[in-house]
Design goal:
Elements: E1 2-3, H1 7-14, H2 19-25, H3 28-38, H4 40-45, H5 50-69, H6 74-81, H7 84-92, H8 94-97, E2 100-101, H9 104-109, H10 123-131, E3 135-139, E4 145-149, H11 150-161, H12 177-184, E5 194-197, H13 200-213, E6 220-223, H14 224-232, H15 245-248, H16 257-264, H17 274-289, H18 306-309
Parallel strand pairs: 1-2, 5-6
Antiparallel strand pairs: 3-4
Helix pairs in contact: 1-7, 3-5, 3-6, 12-13, 16-17
Amino acid sequence: MFLPLTEEVCKGLAAGESLDDFLSEAGRPQLAALMLLLNLKALVAQNTAVEQLERMLDDVLRAAASVEEAGGRFADLVRGRFTVDHLAAGLWVLEVAGVSLLEDADIEQQDYLDGEGQWDFGFGLRHRAKLEPLTREVVMPSGDVLRLSDQQSRIFDEFKVCNEESFHLQAYAGVGKTYLLAKFFEVLVPEKTLLMATFPGQVSALQARVRQANPDARINACTFGHMANLLLNRDLTARGWRNTDIQRTGASSLVDDRQVAQWLNLQAVGKLQPRDVARVCRATVHSFSLSPLANIEARHLPSLGHAASNPRELQPHHHRRKPRTDGADGADP
């Protein structure tokens, strides 16, 4: 499935670029695509099939037309739903959802709309054939016929011969990495293979892909966070912090900002106490982790109210000694 949005536009919005500029220029298909993208993480967590996602996009597109025909502005509804976090989360699960983005030229052609301006459900197949005109058919042990692009075919052949080596697959979202990874499992021993992903929804989606070919296969799968818990919980000494997944997200297991400041020996910055500095650092790292940027920037800093709007408030205060009227050299209390 292809969404009529470009990667450049999506990453720009996720990085804090002007939403108003986008809404003023975007057409109805782009607004509908953005609305779906904002909800994509939740839909992936519900194991929503890509076919259903495409039907949802068509429904949103029709709803947008109805709103505008009634004199409303669908862009206002998108603005009310939009958050940077929702968009960043949607971009993160694009590949697992089986969704790709388009290039500017493809969006301008509007080949994804039919003659009545509605979503064309045949566009995905046409565009995929255009992107991958040369395919190779491979018969899998299960009897399924695997259709691979030239690049996928070369990777798959190499993996079959060297399946104990490390492989790093890197490509744009939606070009078939998840599809290929699922097919790798058909040439592996499931009981000796560990499948890991970042989010539970991604793990579930990958498991579902693998089970399509081998429903009875025993799949060892978990999130990276769960694996971290398993490793950390191996410390059975008194210093060990043995928690379960649920406990680690509970308030009793979280380290407060005061403790972080003490451990890291953080100092006060202006009017910010050490615990406040720790809070700013934690919020900044959290914002950066949800963004597509490679480096931490000023935009990741949380709002500090008046102190943030006045940089001088964040600098250490030095008090000058005032001359006394009685001629003595001293400072006013």
